[in-house]
Amino acid sequence: MALTLVYSVTGLKVRDEVNTDGDTNANAVVQTYWKVVGTDEAGQTADWAGATPFTAANVPAGSFAAFDTLTEDNVLAWITAVVEGDAQYKAHIIGQLEKQIDELVTSEPALPWAEEVTPQEDAPEADDLDLP
């Protein structure tokens, strides 16, 4: 089944990191939390949560994006680069989404050859009977 994927960022962790040039990248994003929603051709959806670590240790100060200038699109580009860059990881995510969707559209009916059991009304208690 082909899925359309939509990613969103649900959280970030930051800290000051010193890069390899000895410059401090203030409030560098070091952890991302995100969610991806997969939608199949029939409109069924499933979601999966992920967490991806990052480091700014190799980012020169001139290329570093300050935290307050980041957009969700910036961070999603980092995350999707990691997911898309690892075919096995992406296949795992797709597999989990497909499994959830399969469970949504799978039912567990009664066996067609089994007799239908009709619940009986509770029998009256002996104290409730009018006996002489």
Structural commentary:
- This protein has 132 residues and is α+β, with helices and mostly antiparallel strands.
- The chain has one domain (4-104).
- The chain is built from two helices and three strands.
- It has helices at residues 72-84, 87-105, and strands at 4-18, 24-39, 45-53.
- A three-stranded antiparallel beta sheet has the order 1-2-3.
- A hairpin with a 5-residue loop joins strand 1 (4-18) and strand 2.
- The radius of gyration is 27 Å and the shape is elongated.
Count structural domains.
Answer: 1
What portion of residues is helical? 10-25%
Which spans have pLDDT < 50 for at least 5 consecutive residues?
Answer: none
Rg, rounded, reads 27 Å
By DSSP, the count of extended strands is 3
Averaged pLDDT, please? 90
Structural class: alpha+beta
Compact overview of the structure:
With 132 residues, the protein is of the alpha+beta class. It contains 2 helices and 3 strands.
